[in-house]
Amino acid sequence: MAENKGNKMIRLDHLTKSFRRTRVLDDLTLEIAGGDRVALIGSNGAGKTTLIRCILGQYGHEGRLSIDGKDPRKARGEVLGRIGFVPQLPPPLKMPVGELIRFAAHICKSPASRMEDIGIRLGLDFDEIRRRPFVKLSGGMKQKILISIAMGRDTGLLILDEPTANLDPAARQILFELLSERIDQSMIISSHRLEEVSGLVNRVIEMDRGKVVLDDHVEDAVNIAARQLCTVRIGRLEPAFAKAVEEWGFRSSAGGLEWSGEVAGPDRLQFLGMLSRYAGILSALDLREGPR
Amino acid sequence: MKAFLLTARLDMAESFRAKWFVVYSLVFGGIVVALFLFGLSESRIMGFTGLTRLLVTYIQLSMAILPVFVLISTVRSMAGDREAGVYEYMLSLPVPLWAWYWGRFAGRFAVVFLPVFLAMAAAMIWGGLRGADLPYAHFFWYSALLVSLAFCFLGMGFLISSLTRSPDVAQSAAFFIWLVLLMFLDLVLLGVIIQEQAPPEVVMAIALANPMQVFRAAAMMLFDPQLILLGPSAYLILDNFGSAGFMAYALIYPAGLGLVLAWLGFRVFCKSDL
Q: How much is the pTM?
Protein backbone atom coordinates (compact mmCIF):
# COMPACT_ATOMS: atom_id res chain seq x y z
CA MET A 1 0.00 0.00 0.00
CA ALA A 2 2.75 2.44 0.92
CA GLU A 3 4.43 1.68 -2.36
CA ASN A 4 1.29 2.99 -4.09
CA LYS A 5 1.92 6.56 -3.00
CA GLY A 6 -0.43 8.90 -4.79
CA ASN A 7 -2.68 6.12 -6.07
CA LYS A 8 -6.27 6.01 -4.86
CA MET A 9 -5.98 3.55 -2.03
CA ILE A 10 -9.32 3.83 -0.28
CA ARG A 11 -12.40 4.41 -2.37
CA LEU A 12 -15.82 5.07 -0.90
CA ASP A 13 -18.60 5.18 -3.42
CA HIS A 14 -21.98 6.29 -2.07
CA LEU A 15 -21.24 4.54 1.22
CA THR A 16 -24.27 4.48 3.50
CA LYS A 17 -24.63 2.79 6.84
CA SER A 18 -27.76 2.76 8.96
CA PHE A 19 -28.50 1.27 12.35
CA ARG A 20 -32.20 0.52 12.34
CA ARG A 21 -33.63 3.80 11.08
CA THR A 22 -30.70 6.00 11.99
CA ARG A 23 -28.43 6.84 9.07
CA VAL A 24 -24.92 7.06 10.53
CA LEU A 25 -23.01 7.34 7.25
CA ASP A 26 -24.91 9.20 4.60
CA ASP A 27 -23.95 8.58 0.98
CA LEU A 28 -20.21 9.16 1.43
CA THR A 29 -18.10 9.37 -1.70
CA LEU A 30 -14.45 9.84 -0.98
CA GLU A 31 -10.99 8.81 -2.11
CA ILE A 32 -7.90 8.60 0.02
CA ALA A 33 -4.61 8.28 -1.79
CA GLY A 34 -1.56 6.33 -0.74
CA GLY A 35 0.56 8.63 1.41
CA ASP A 36 -2.37 10.71 2.61
CA ARG A 37 -2.26 11.32 6.34
CA VAL A 38 -5.84 12.16 7.14
CA ALA A 39 -7.17 13.80 10.28
CA LEU A 40 -10.69 12.44 10.60
CA ILE A 41 -12.39 14.89 12.89
CA GLY A 42 -15.89 15.52 14.12
CA SER A 43 -17.97 15.51 17.26
CA ASN A 44 -19.47 12.46 18.92
CA GLY A 45 -21.94 10.75 16.60
CA ALA A 46 -20.42 12.28 13.48
CA GLY A 47 -19.76 8.81 12.06
CA LYS A 48 -15.97 8.58 12.44
CA THR A 49 -15.88 5.26 14.27
CA THR A 50 -18.54 3.76 12.00
CA LEU A 51 -16.50 4.75 8.97
CA ILE A 52 -13.39 3.19 10.50
CA ARG A 53 -15.28 -0.03 11.23
CA CYS A 54 -16.53 -0.14 7.65
CA ILE A 55 -12.94 0.27 6.42
CA LEU A 56 -11.93 -2.58 8.75
CA GLY A 57 -14.64 -4.74 7.16
CA GLN A 58 -16.59 -5.04 10.39
CA TYR A 59 -19.84 -3.48 9.23
CA GLY A 60 -22.02 -4.29 6.27
CA HIS A 61 -23.13 -1.22 4.29
CA GLU A 62 -24.79 0.08 1.18
CA GLY A 63 -22.62 1.49 -1.59
CA ARG A 64 -19.08 0.37 -2.28
CA LEU A 65 -15.88 0.50 -0.32
CA SER A 66 -12.56 -0.82 -1.52
CA ILE A 67 -9.02 -0.75 -0.26
CA ASP A 68 -6.46 -1.22 -3.02
CA GLY A 69 -9.34 -2.50 -5.11
CA LYS A 70 -10.37 -5.13 -2.56
CA ASP A 71 -13.51 -5.38 -0.50
CA PRO A 72 -12.43 -5.56 3.16
CA ARG A 73 -15.34 -7.85 4.02
CA LYS A 74 -14.54 -10.33 1.27
CA ALA A 75 -10.74 -10.16 1.32
CA ARG A 76 -10.26 -9.74 5.08
CA GLY A 77 -6.89 -11.42 5.32
CA GLU A 78 -5.29 -9.45 2.50
CA VAL A 79 -6.75 -6.11 3.54
CA LEU A 80 -6.36 -6.35 7.32
CA GLY A 81 -2.89 -7.84 6.98
CA ARG A 82 -1.76 -4.40 5.82
CA ILE A 83 -3.73 -2.27 8.29
CA GLY A 84 -2.52 -1.38 11.76
CA PHE A 85 -5.37 -0.28 14.01
CA VAL A 86 -5.42 1.38 17.42
CA PRO A 87 -8.93 1.72 18.86
CA GLN A 88 -10.12 4.65 20.91
CA LEU A 89 -11.09 2.48 23.88
CA PRO A 90 -8.77 -0.42 24.69
CA PRO A 91 -10.71 -3.71 24.79
CA PRO A 92 -11.15 -5.29 28.25
CA LEU A 93 -8.97 -8.32 27.49
CA LYS A 94 -8.26 -10.49 30.51
CA MET A 95 -5.35 -12.26 28.83
CA PRO A 96 -1.80 -11.42 29.91
CA VAL A 97 0.07 -8.92 27.80
CA GLY A 98 2.54 -11.58 26.63
CA GLU A 99 -0.29 -13.75 25.33
CA LEU A 100 -1.90 -10.85 23.48
CA ILE A 101 1.40 -9.94 21.82
CA ARG A 102 2.07 -13.58 20.93
CA PHE A 103 -1.40 -14.00 19.40
CA ALA A 104 -1.17 -10.78 17.40
CA ALA A 105 2.36 -11.60 16.24
CA HIS A 106 1.33 -15.04 14.98
CA ILE A 107 -1.80 -13.75 13.28
CA CYS A 108 0.04 -10.81 11.69
CA LYS A 109 3.06 -12.96 10.78
CA SER A 110 5.44 -10.55 12.45
CA PRO A 111 7.98 -11.33 15.18
CA ALA A 112 6.72 -10.61 18.69
CA SER A 113 10.11 -9.07 19.45
CA ARG A 114 9.45 -6.39 16.82
CA MET A 115 6.22 -5.39 18.56
CA GLU A 116 7.95 -5.41 21.92
CA ASP A 117 10.73 -3.21 20.56
CA ILE A 118 8.15 -0.56 19.71
CA GLY A 119 6.69 -0.89 23.21
CA ILE A 120 10.13 -0.52 24.76
CA ARG A 121 10.68 2.67 22.78
CA LEU A 122 7.36 3.92 24.15
CA GLY A 123 8.61 3.25 27.67
CA LEU A 124 7.07 -0.15 28.45
CA ASP A 125 8.92 -2.65 30.60
CA PHE A 126 7.82 -6.00 29.20
CA ASP A 127 9.58 -8.00 31.92
CA GLU A 128 7.26 -6.32 34.38
CA ILE A 129 4.00 -6.40 32.45
CA ARG A 130 4.29 -9.59 30.38
CA ARG A 131 2.30 -11.70 32.85
CA ARG A 132 -0.12 -8.99 33.92
CA PRO A 133 -3.69 -9.05 32.55
CA PHE A 134 -4.07 -6.44 29.84
CA VAL A 135 -7.28 -5.14 31.41
CA LYS A 136 -5.53 -4.34 34.70
CA LEU A 137 -2.99 -1.97 33.15
CA SER A 138 -3.31 1.80 33.16
CA GLY A 139 -4.94 3.52 30.18
CA GLY A 140 -1.57 4.78 28.96
CA MET A 141 0.05 1.34 29.11
CA LYS A 142 -2.83 -0.25 27.22
CA GLN A 143 -2.57 2.42 24.56
CA LYS A 144 1.17 1.83 24.21
CA ILE A 145 0.66 -1.93 23.82
CA LEU A 146 -1.96 -1.44 21.13
CA ILE A 147 0.33 1.02 19.33
CA SER A 148 3.14 -1.55 19.60
CA ILE A 149 0.98 -4.21 17.96
CA ALA A 150 -0.20 -1.84 15.23
CA MET A 151 3.27 -0.53 14.42
CA GLY A 152 5.36 -3.60 15.11
CA ARG A 153 4.50 -5.09 11.74
CA ASP A 154 4.53 -4.20 8.05
CA THR A 155 1.52 -2.08 7.23
CA GLY A 156 0.47 0.23 4.46
CA LEU A 157 -2.31 1.98 6.35
CA LEU A 158 -2.44 3.02 9.96
CA ILE A 159 -5.81 3.76 11.52
CA LEU A 160 -5.42 5.45 14.86
CA ASP A 161 -8.50 6.42 16.84
CA GLU A 162 -7.56 9.14 19.34
CA PRO A 163 -4.02 7.74 19.57
CA THR A 164 -2.63 10.34 21.93
CA ALA A 165 -5.58 10.42 24.33
CA ASN A 166 -3.92 8.45 27.15
CA LEU A 167 -0.29 9.26 26.46
CA ASP A 168 1.94 11.61 28.41
CA PRO A 169 4.01 14.17 26.46
CA ALA A 170 7.14 11.98 26.52
CA ALA A 171 5.28 8.98 25.07
CA ARG A 172 3.57 11.25 22.54
CA GLN A 173 7.00 12.45 21.38
CA ILE A 174 8.07 8.84 20.83
CA LEU A 175 4.82 8.13 18.97
CA PHE A 176 5.47 11.11 16.71
CA GLU A 177 8.96 9.78 16.03
CA LEU A 178 7.52 6.37 15.17
CA LEU A 179 5.00 7.96 12.84
CA SER A 180 7.70 10.07 11.21
CA GLU A 181 9.54 6.84 10.37
CA ARG A 182 6.46 5.82 8.39
CA ILE A 183 5.80 9.18 6.88
CA ASP A 184 5.13 7.69 3.42
CA GLN A 185 2.38 5.47 4.73
CA SER A 186 -1.26 6.34 4.61
CA MET A 187 -2.78 7.18 7.97
CA ILE A 188 -6.24 7.92 9.23
CA ILE A 189 -6.06 9.60 12.59
CA SER A 190 -9.40 10.13 14.21
CA SER A 191 -9.92 12.78 16.82
CA HIS A 192 -12.55 15.02 18.32
CA ARG A 193 -10.23 17.98 18.04
CA LEU A 194 -8.08 19.01 15.13
CA GLU A 195 -5.40 20.66 17.26
CA GLU A 196 -4.49 17.29 18.77
CA VAL A 197 -3.55 15.79 15.43
CA SER A 198 -3.03 18.74 13.11
CA GLY A 199 0.75 18.45 13.23
CA LEU A 200 0.63 14.87 12.02
CA VAL A 201 -1.49 15.16 8.91
CA ASN A 202 -1.56 16.56 5.41
CA ARG A 203 -5.30 16.33 4.90
CA VAL A 204 -8.31 17.08 7.07
CA ILE A 205 -11.69 15.45 6.68
CA GLU A 206 -14.39 16.71 8.98
CA MET A 207 -17.57 14.72 9.43
CA ASP A 208 -20.90 15.78 10.79
CA ARG A 209 -23.98 13.57 11.05
CA GLY A 210 -22.61 11.03 8.63
CA LYS A 211 -21.53 13.46 5.92
CA VAL A 212 -18.20 14.98 4.96
CA VAL A 213 -18.50 18.69 5.65
CA LEU A 214 -14.85 19.62 5.08
CA ASP A 215 -12.17 17.95 2.99
CA ASP A 216 -9.01 19.99 2.76
CA HIS A 217 -5.35 19.40 2.12
CA VAL A 218 -3.12 21.20 4.58
CA GLU A 219 0.46 22.37 4.49
CA ASP A 220 2.76 19.42 5.08
CA ALA A 221 5.75 21.38 6.35
CA VAL A 222 5.90 20.23 9.93
CA ASN A 223 8.48 17.61 10.64
CA ILE A 224 6.55 15.14 12.77
CA ALA A 225 9.60 14.16 14.76
CA ALA A 226 10.81 17.75 15.30
CA ARG A 227 11.22 19.06 18.82
CA GLN A 228 10.73 22.62 19.92
CA LEU A 229 13.02 23.98 22.60
CA CYS A 230 10.91 26.12 24.86
CA THR A 231 11.52 28.52 27.70
CA VAL A 232 8.68 30.11 29.62
CA ARG A 233 9.03 32.90 32.14
CA ILE A 234 6.28 33.76 34.60
CA GLY A 235 5.68 36.83 36.71
CA ARG A 236 4.85 35.07 39.97
CA LEU A 237 4.93 31.59 41.45
CA GLU A 238 1.85 29.55 40.67
CA PRO A 239 1.65 25.89 41.87
CA ALA A 240 -0.99 24.93 39.27
CA PHE A 241 1.24 26.21 36.48
CA ALA A 242 4.24 24.36 37.94
CA LYS A 243 2.27 21.14 38.01
CA ALA A 244 1.05 21.60 34.44
CA VAL A 245 4.49 22.25 32.93
CA GLU A 246 6.08 19.48 34.98
CA GLU A 247 3.70 17.09 33.25
CA TRP A 248 5.29 18.23 30.00
CA GLY A 249 8.73 17.37 31.41
CA PHE A 250 9.80 20.97 32.01
CA ARG A 251 12.36 21.90 34.67
CA SER A 252 12.48 25.13 36.65
CA SER A 253 15.23 27.63 37.33
CA ALA A 254 15.36 31.17 38.73
CA GLY A 255 13.44 30.15 41.81
CA GLY A 256 10.57 28.60 39.86
CA LEU A 257 10.00 31.65 37.68
CA GLU A 258 11.62 30.19 34.56
CA TRP A 259 10.82 26.81 33.03
CA SER A 260 12.57 25.04 30.18
CA GLY A 261 11.88 21.90 28.23
CA GLU A 262 11.11 20.33 24.87
CA VAL A 263 7.80 20.13 23.08
CA ALA A 264 7.13 17.71 20.25
CA GLY A 265 6.40 19.55 16.99
CA PRO A 266 2.90 18.14 16.53
CA ASP A 267 2.16 18.92 20.18
CA ARG A 268 2.79 22.65 19.79
CA LEU A 269 -0.84 23.63 19.55
CA GLN A 270 -1.77 21.54 22.52
CA PHE A 271 1.10 22.98 24.55
CA LEU A 272 0.16 26.53 23.65
CA GLY A 273 -3.42 25.70 24.57
CA MET A 274 -2.23 24.64 28.00
CA LEU A 275 -0.15 27.84 28.34
CA SER A 276 -3.14 29.96 27.38
CA ARG A 277 -4.79 28.97 30.65
CA TYR A 278 -1.97 30.84 32.44
CA ALA A 279 -1.71 33.80 30.07
CA GLY A 280 -2.13 36.21 32.98
CA ILE A 281 1.14 35.22 34.62
CA LEU A 282 3.25 34.69 31.48
CA SER A 283 5.98 37.27 31.07
CA ALA A 284 8.06 35.70 28.29
CA LEU A 285 7.86 32.78 25.90
CA ASP A 286 10.60 31.46 23.63
CA LEU A 287 9.83 28.58 21.27
CA ARG A 288 12.35 27.53 18.66
CA GLU A 289 13.12 24.55 16.42
CA GLY A 290 15.43 22.13 18.20
CA PRO A 291 17.69 19.36 16.96
CA ARG A 292 15.91 16.23 15.73
CA MET B 1 -5.41 -23.63 10.37
CA LYS B 2 -2.85 -21.94 12.58
CA ALA B 3 -5.28 -19.08 13.25
CA PHE B 4 -7.94 -21.64 14.19
CA LEU B 5 -5.65 -23.33 16.71
CA LEU B 6 -4.44 -20.01 18.10
CA THR B 7 -8.01 -18.80 18.59
CA ALA B 8 -9.04 -22.09 20.22
CA ARG B 9 -6.11 -21.83 22.59
CA LEU B 10 -6.87 -18.20 23.33
CA ASP B 11 -10.51 -18.98 24.13
CA MET B 12 -9.51 -21.84 26.40
CA ALA B 13 -7.03 -19.65 28.24
CA GLU B 14 -9.66 -16.89 28.62
CA SER B 15 -12.19 -19.43 29.93
CA PHE B 16 -9.73 -20.92 32.43
CA ARG B 17 -9.32 -17.45 33.88
CA ALA B 18 -13.07 -16.76 34.03
CA LYS B 19 -15.07 -17.10 37.24
CA TRP B 20 -17.81 -19.10 35.53
CA PHE B 21 -15.30 -21.81 34.72
CA VAL B 22 -14.21 -22.07 38.34
CA VAL B 23 -17.83 -22.41 39.46
CA TYR B 24 -18.59 -24.85 36.64
CA SER B 25 -15.62 -27.07 37.53
CA LEU B 26 -16.43 -26.92 41.23
CA VAL B 27 -20.04 -27.91 40.57
CA PHE B 28 -19.15 -31.06 38.63
CA GLY B 29 -16.20 -31.96 40.83
CA GLY B 30 -18.40 -31.25 43.84
CA ILE B 31 -21.14 -33.56 42.55
CA VAL B 32 -18.73 -36.48 42.32
CA VAL B 33 -17.29 -35.77 45.75
CA ALA B 34 -20.81 -35.44 47.20
CA LEU B 35 -21.92 -38.70 45.60
CA PHE B 36 -18.96 -40.49 47.17
CA LEU B 37 -19.50 -38.79 50.54
CA PHE B 38 -23.16 -39.71 50.65
CA GLY B 39 -22.23 -43.28 49.92
CA LEU B 40 -24.03 -43.48 46.60
CA SER B 41 -21.34 -45.79 45.33
CA GLU B 42 -22.36 -48.20 48.09
CA SER B 43 -26.13 -48.05 47.47
CA ARG B 44 -28.23 -50.21 45.21
CA ILE B 45 -30.90 -49.37 42.66
CA MET B 46 -32.46 -51.75 40.19
CA GLY B 47 -29.65 -54.14 40.88
CA PHE B 48 -26.92 -51.58 40.20
CA THR B 49 -24.31 -50.85 42.82
CA GLY B 50 -20.89 -49.32 43.03
CA LEU B 51 -19.56 -46.97 40.39
CA THR B 52 -22.33 -47.79 37.91
CA ARG B 53 -24.88 -46.46 40.36
CA LEU B 54 -22.77 -43.38 40.98
CA LEU B 55 -22.36 -42.72 37.27
CA VAL B 56 -26.11 -43.10 36.67
CA THR B 57 -26.83 -40.42 39.24
CA TYR B 58 -24.01 -38.24 37.98
CA ILE B 59 -25.23 -38.37 34.40
CA GLN B 60 -28.79 -37.47 35.43
CA LEU B 61 -27.50 -34.47 37.35
CA SER B 62 -25.25 -33.50 34.43
CA MET B 63 -28.27 -33.45 32.14
CA ALA B 64 -29.90 -30.85 34.34
CA ILE B 65 -26.83 -28.69 34.89
CA LEU B 66 -24.64 -28.90 31.78
CA PRO B 67 -27.06 -27.39 29.23
CA VAL B 68 -27.90 -24.31 31.24
CA PHE B 69 -24.27 -23.73 32.21
CA VAL B 70 -23.08 -24.10 28.62
CA LEU B 71 -25.82 -21.88 27.23
CA ILE B 72 -25.54 -19.07 29.74
CA SER B 73 -21.75 -18.95 29.95
CA THR B 74 -21.38 -19.07 26.17
CA VAL B 75 -23.87 -16.36 25.32
CA ARG B 76 -22.71 -14.13 28.16
CA SER B 77 -19.08 -14.20 27.17
CA MET B 78 -19.67 -14.02 23.40
CA ALA B 79 -22.25 -11.22 23.49
CA GLY B 80 -20.34 -9.51 26.31
CA ASP B 81 -17.14 -9.53 24.25
CA ARG B 82 -18.96 -7.96 21.35
CA GLU B 83 -20.52 -5.25 23.50
CA ALA B 84 -17.25 -4.47 25.27
CA GLY B 85 -15.35 -3.93 22.01
CA VAL B 86 -13.27 -7.11 22.13
CA TYR B 87 -14.52 -8.09 18.67
CA GLU B 88 -13.80 -4.62 17.33
CA TYR B 89 -10.16 -4.99 18.24
CA MET B 90 -9.48 -8.69 17.81
CA LEU B 91 -11.25 -8.80 14.46
CA SER B 92 -9.24 -5.84 13.21
CA LEU B 93 -6.34 -8.30 13.15
CA PRO B 94 -6.17 -10.39 9.99
CA VAL B 95 -7.71 -13.48 11.57
CA PRO B 96 -10.11 -15.25 9.17
CA LEU B 97 -13.71 -15.19 10.42
CA TRP B 98 -14.04 -18.97 10.14
CA ALA B 99 -10.92 -19.45 12.24
CA TRP B 100 -12.18 -17.01 14.86
CA TYR B 101 -15.68 -18.50 15.07
CA TRP B 102 -14.83 -22.19 14.89
CA GLY B 103 -11.67 -21.72 16.93
CA ARG B 104 -13.75 -20.28 19.73
CA PHE B 105 -16.26 -23.08 19.27
CA ALA B 106 -13.54 -25.72 19.59
CA GLY B 107 -11.91 -24.02 22.54
CA ARG B 108 -15.20 -23.59 24.31
CA PHE B 109 -16.14 -27.21 23.63
CA ALA B 110 -12.94 -28.43 25.28
CA VAL B 111 -13.54 -26.15 28.23
CA VAL B 112 -17.15 -27.22 28.87
CA PHE B 113 -16.55 -30.92 28.26
CA LEU B 114 -13.31 -31.41 30.16
CA PRO B 115 -14.53 -30.68 33.72
CA VAL B 116 -17.55 -32.97 33.29
CA PHE B 117 -15.40 -35.70 31.80
CA LEU B 118 -12.54 -35.31 34.24
CA ALA B 119 -14.90 -35.45 37.23
CA MET B 120 -16.29 -38.71 35.87
CA ALA B 121 -12.78 -40.03 35.14
CA ALA B 122 -11.68 -39.07 38.65
CA ALA B 123 -14.61 -41.07 40.05
CA MET B 124 -13.48 -44.07 38.00
CA ILE B 125 -9.88 -43.76 39.19
CA TRP B 126 -10.92 -43.29 42.81
CA GLY B 127 -13.34 -46.22 42.60
CA GLY B 128 -10.63 -48.36 41.02
CA LEU B 129 -8.22 -47.51 43.82
CA ARG B 130 -10.84 -48.61 46.32
CA GLY B 131 -11.20 -51.91 44.56
CA ALA B 132 -14.58 -51.33 42.90
CA ASP B 133 -15.48 -52.93 39.58
CA LEU B 134 -14.90 -50.40 36.81
CA PRO B 135 -17.85 -50.04 34.42
CA TYR B 136 -15.84 -49.21 31.33
CA ALA B 137 -18.78 -49.58 28.94
CA HIS B 138 -20.92 -47.12 30.93
CA PHE B 139 -18.02 -44.73 31.19
CA PHE B 140 -17.52 -44.81 27.44
CA TRP B 141 -21.21 -44.35 26.59
CA TYR B 142 -21.76 -41.60 29.12
CA SER B 143 -18.69 -39.77 27.84
CA ALA B 144 -19.95 -40.04 24.28
CA LEU B 145 -23.43 -38.85 25.29
CA LEU B 146 -21.92 -35.90 27.15
CA VAL B 147 -19.86 -34.97 24.07
CA SER B 148 -23.04 -34.97 22.03
CA LEU B 149 -25.03 -32.96 24.59
CA ALA B 150 -22.26 -30.38 25.06
CA PHE B 151 -21.93 -30.02 21.27
CA CYS B 152 -25.67 -29.48 20.95
CA PHE B 153 -25.96 -26.73 23.53
CA LEU B 154 -22.76 -25.09 22.43
CA GLY B 155 -24.22 -24.84 18.93
CA MET B 156 -27.36 -23.27 20.37
CA GLY B 157 -25.27 -20.84 22.41
CA PHE B 158 -23.25 -19.79 19.37
CA LEU B 159 -26.37 -19.25 17.27
CA ILE B 160 -28.00 -17.14 19.99
CA SER B 161 -24.77 -15.13 20.36
CA SER B 162 -24.69 -14.43 16.64
CA LEU B 163 -28.33 -13.38 16.54
CA THR B 164 -28.37 -11.09 19.57
CA ARG B 165 -26.52 -7.86 20.19
CA SER B 166 -26.68 -7.46 23.96
CA PRO B 167 -25.66 -9.91 26.71
CA ASP B 168 -28.98 -9.39 28.52
CA VAL B 169 -31.09 -10.34 25.52
CA ALA B 170 -28.78 -13.27 24.75
CA GLN B 171 -28.96 -14.52 28.32
CA SER B 172 -32.74 -14.23 28.46
CA ALA B 173 -33.11 -16.07 25.14
CA ALA B 174 -30.77 -18.84 26.30
CA PHE B 175 -32.60 -19.26 29.58
CA PHE B 176 -35.97 -19.34 27.81
CA ILE B 177 -34.82 -22.04 25.39
CA TRP B 178 -33.45 -24.14 28.24
CA LEU B 179 -36.75 -23.78 30.11
CA VAL B 180 -38.77 -24.84 27.06
CA LEU B 181 -36.61 -27.91 26.54
CA LEU B 182 -36.85 -28.72 30.24
CA MET B 183 -40.64 -28.41 30.11
CA PHE B 184 -40.84 -30.88 27.28
CA LEU B 185 -39.12 -33.65 29.20
CA ASP B 186 -41.16 -36.80 29.67
CA LEU B 187 -43.07 -35.77 32.78
CA VAL B 188 -44.58 -32.75 31.07
CA LEU B 189 -45.16 -34.80 27.92
CA LEU B 190 -47.06 -37.39 29.90
CA GLY B 191 -49.25 -34.61 31.19
CA VAL B 192 -49.85 -33.45 27.62
CA ILE B 193 -50.86 -36.94 26.55
CA ILE B 194 -53.31 -37.29 29.38
CA GLN B 195 -54.84 -33.84 29.20
CA GLU B 196 -54.92 -33.10 25.50
CA GLN B 197 -55.23 -36.62 24.23
CA ALA B 198 -52.63 -35.81 21.63
CA PRO B 199 -51.67 -38.63 19.27
CA PRO B 200 -48.75 -40.55 20.76
CA GLU B 201 -46.76 -40.08 17.53
CA VAL B 202 -46.88 -36.31 17.94
CA VAL B 203 -45.74 -36.54 21.52
CA MET B 204 -42.99 -38.94 20.55
CA ALA B 205 -41.86 -36.65 17.74
CA ILE B 206 -41.64 -33.77 20.20
CA ALA B 207 -39.73 -35.93 22.65
CA LEU B 208 -37.31 -37.16 20.02
CA ALA B 209 -36.73 -33.61 18.80
CA ASN B 210 -35.76 -32.52 22.30
CA PRO B 211 -32.03 -33.22 22.75
CA MET B 212 -32.39 -33.24 26.53
CA GLN B 213 -35.10 -35.88 26.34
CA VAL B 214 -33.03 -37.94 23.89
CA PHE B 215 -30.03 -37.75 26.21
CA ARG B 216 -32.17 -38.70 29.18
CA ALA B 217 -33.74 -41.70 27.49
CA ALA B 218 -30.36 -42.90 26.19
CA ALA B 219 -28.73 -42.53 29.60
CA MET B 220 -31.66 -44.42 31.09
CA MET B 221 -31.37 -47.17 28.50
CA LEU B 222 -27.83 -47.93 29.62
CA PHE B 223 -28.98 -49.14 33.03
CA ASP B 224 -32.59 -50.01 32.09
CA PRO B 225 -32.39 -51.58 28.59
CA GLN B 226 -36.17 -52.18 28.44
CA LEU B 227 -36.85 -48.56 29.49
CA ILE B 228 -39.29 -49.73 32.14
CA LEU B 229 -38.88 -46.38 33.90
CA LEU B 230 -40.10 -44.59 30.79
CA GLY B 231 -43.45 -46.38 30.72
CA PRO B 232 -45.46 -47.15 27.57
CA SER B 233 -43.49 -44.74 25.38
CA ALA B 234 -40.60 -47.16 25.66
CA TYR B 235 -42.41 -49.42 23.19
CA LEU B 236 -42.39 -46.70 20.56
CA ILE B 237 -38.68 -46.11 21.00
CA LEU B 238 -37.70 -49.75 21.07
CA ASP B 239 -40.07 -50.78 18.25
CA ASN B 240 -38.99 -47.98 15.94
CA PHE B 241 -35.29 -47.75 16.74
CA GLY B 242 -34.17 -50.79 18.68
CA SER B 243 -31.62 -50.37 21.45
CA ALA B 244 -28.58 -49.93 19.22
CA GLY B 245 -30.47 -47.68 16.82
CA PHE B 246 -31.65 -45.41 19.58
CA MET B 247 -28.17 -45.15 21.09
CA ALA B 248 -26.82 -44.21 17.67
CA TYR B 249 -29.62 -41.64 17.30
CA ALA B 250 -28.87 -40.26 20.78
CA LEU B 251 -25.26 -39.71 19.82
CA ILE B 252 -25.74 -38.40 16.30
CA TYR B 253 -28.88 -36.25 16.60
CA PRO B 254 -27.83 -33.80 19.38
CA ALA B 255 -24.33 -33.46 17.95
CA GLY B 256 -25.72 -32.96 14.43
CA LEU B 257 -28.27 -30.45 15.69
CA GLY B 258 -25.51 -28.56 17.49
CA LEU B 259 -23.40 -28.51 14.37
CA VAL B 260 -26.27 -27.25 12.21
CA LEU B 261 -27.16 -24.52 14.73
CA ALA B 262 -23.51 -23.49 15.05
CA TRP B 263 -23.22 -23.39 11.26
CA LEU B 264 -26.32 -21.18 11.04
CA GLY B 265 -24.72 -18.98 13.69
CA PHE B 266 -21.59 -18.80 11.58
CA ARG B 267 -23.57 -17.69 8.53
CA VAL B 268 -25.23 -14.95 10.57
CA PHE B 269 -21.88 -14.00 12.13
CA CYS B 270 -20.24 -13.57 8.71
CA LYS B 271 -23.10 -11.63 7.16
CA SER B 272 -24.03 -9.31 10.02
CA ASP B 273 -22.08 -6.48 11.64
CA LEU B 274 -19.26 -7.84 13.78
A: 0.82
